[in-house]
């Protein structure tokens, strides 16, 4: 079971999978930050930890059901000469939910004003369920990729655990930063709309390289960081 410890290729696979899980978790952290911000302050840290812990257990469950995960790509039915698998339907549902959720948040931010940002819109349990379900949708491709990159289940599970630990460590700082800066929150919502459209296109087998998406995100964040720095210097 632990013979992989002496295999350098196994350690390379662990490092690759861990980085993959962390990078693909960026959009999940953004969504988590926006959901948790709707809860009372004293519940936010607990919701982050429970939501990510529950999502981690669900990911590990998916990895433990490798044969079932592989079958997610098998066609279920054909519509207009396009084969739809269970993976496609999950991605389509997740993309539509992200578009609806982000659109509602943007509408509230524009029409409701800053005073509504702290209102308790979500229940505690509802926030955790949203975090867990969206994490599964976000991580579905990484789980399938992990199955293809490594033959050792323990390596795949270790990569998931390490990535979630990193996300737990970073989620609070990112959430507090987004909450303090309304313009960053609007940018984060725009990211989620972009991710939602990407998921919908992926469900129709229209593949968009993830590098393009992450480049757009990091470039936009770099520009927004310069704006924040400029505004800070103006007020000092």
Give a brief description.
With 236 residues, the chain is mainly α. It has helices at 8-24, 26-36, 41-64, 66-71, 86-112, 124-149, 153-180, 182-203, 210-234, and strands spanning 75-79, 82-85.
Secondary structure blueprint with pairings:
Elements (H helix, E strand, L loop, with lengths): L7 H17 L1 H11 L4 H24 L1 H6 L3 E5 L2 E4 H27 L11 H26 L3 H28 L1 H22 L6 H25 L2
Antiparallel strand pairs: 1-2
The average pLDDT score comes to 77
Helix-strand string:
HHHHEEHHHHH
Low-confidence stretches: 114-121
How many strands, which pairing sense, and closed or not: the largest β-sheet?
2 strands, antiparallel
Strand order of the largest sheet: 1-2
Separation of the first and last Cα atoms: 60 Å
What structural class do you assign from the helix and strand content? mainly alpha
Q: What is the domain total for the residues?
A: 1
Total strand segments: 2
Based on Cα principal axes, name the global outline.
Answer: globular
Relative helix content = over 70%
Proportion of beta-strand residues: under 5%
Organism: Erwinia tasmaniensis (strain DSM 17950 / CFBP 7177 / CIP 109463 / NCPPB 4357 / Et1/99)
Family: Belongs to the TerC family.
Pfam families: TerC
InterPro entries: Integral_membrane_TerC
Kindly describe this structure.
By secondary structure, the chain is mainly alpha-helical. It contains nine helices and two strands. It has helices spanning 8-24, 26-36, 41-64, 66-71, 86-112, 124-149, 153-180, 182-203, 210-234; strands spanning 75-79, 82-85. The protein has a two-stranded antiparallel sheet with strand order 1-2. Helix 5 crosses helix 6 (124-149). It starts with 7 loop residues before the first helix and ends with a helix. Residues 114-121 have low confidence and may be disordered. It is a multi-pass membrane protein. Belongs to the TerC family. Pfam families: TerC.
């Amino acid at each position: 079971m632990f013979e992989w410890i002496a295999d350098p290729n196994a350690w390379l696979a662990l490092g690759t999978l861990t980085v993959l899980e962390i990078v693909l978790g960026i959009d999940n952290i953004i969504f988590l930050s926006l959901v948790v911000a709707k809860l009372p302050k004293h519940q936010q840290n607990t919701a982050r930890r429970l939501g990510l812990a529950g999502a981690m257990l669900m990911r590990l469950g998916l990895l433990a059901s490798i044969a079932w995960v592989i079958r997610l790509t098998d066609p279920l039915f054909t519509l207009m000469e396009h084969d739809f698998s269970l993976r496609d339907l999950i991605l389509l549902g997740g993309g539509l939910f992200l578009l609806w959720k982000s659109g509602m948040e943007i509408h509230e931010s524009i029409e409701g004003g800053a005073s509504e940002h702290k209102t308790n819109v979500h229940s505690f349990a509802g926030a955790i369920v949203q975090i867990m379900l969206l994490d599964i949708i976000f991580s579905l491709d990484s789980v399938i990729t992990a199955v293809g990159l490594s033959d050792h289940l323990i390596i795949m599970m270790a990569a998931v655990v390490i990535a979630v630990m990193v996300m737990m460590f970073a989620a609070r700082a990112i959430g507090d930063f987004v909450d303090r800066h309304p313009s960053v929150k609007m940018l984060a919502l725009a990211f989620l709309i972009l991710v939602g459209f990407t998921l919908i296109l992926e469900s129709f087998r229209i593949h968009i390289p993830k590098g393009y998406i992450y480049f757009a995100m990091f470039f936009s964040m770099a520009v927004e960081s310069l704006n924040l720095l400029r505004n800070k210097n103006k007020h000092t």
